[in-house]
Design brief:
Blueprint: E1 2-8, E2 20-24, E3 36-38, H1 50-56, E4 62-69, E5 72-79, E6 91-95, E7 104-106, H2 118-124, E8 130-137
Parallel strand pairs: 2-3, 6-7
Antiparallel strand pairs: 1-8, 2-6, 4-5, 4-8
Length: 138
């Protein structure tokens, strides 16, 4: 199953967090939101299709993420978890840890925002830059 979310850049994007990656439907971002890579996202956790949520709530699910910005692509692998609630209206967070909250989409991810190529981060610091966050669950 595949689901795409569109998002936009923001001047305060830092992408320097060592444990998470986040996109948000919010339009405002302070410099302290160092895991956020995109704003004005088309979906939060609550907006995901029911079938996708069911697959994500399976601890045996492998989840792939593709973040595309212009001609750049950054891929992340993670896992589903039976404790996911997927109810946050605005945010989606993928985590290296096993921490679960309403914003958590996947756990045990192999990469975080600090590993995103700096060329991509520079592009994302322009509010006109559009990106695509693709979720693929096998």
């Amino acid at each position: 199953m595949r689901f795409e979310i569109q998002f936009y850049g923001h001047e305060n994007i830092r992408a320097s967090h060592q444990k998470t990656i986040e996109i948000t439907k919010d339009s405002h971002l302070t410099p302290s939101g160092d895991c956020i890579i995109g704003v004005n996202a088309s979906s939060g956790c609550a907006d995901l299709p029911t079938m996708l949520k069911e697959k994500l709530k399976d601890s045996n699910s492998k989840v792939m993420f593709s973040i595309k910005v212009a001609n750049h692509e950054f891929n992340v692998e993670g896992k589903g978890n039976e404790n996911l609630v997927l109810t946050h209206v605005d945010d989606i967070v993928i985590r290296k840890s096993e921490f679960v909250c309403p914003r958590t989409l996947a756990v045990k991810c192999n990469r975080s925002s600090d590993l995103i190529p700096r060329e991509m981060v520079s592009l994302l610091q322009n509010p006109k830059t559009q990106g695509t966050f693709t979720i693929i669950v096998d």
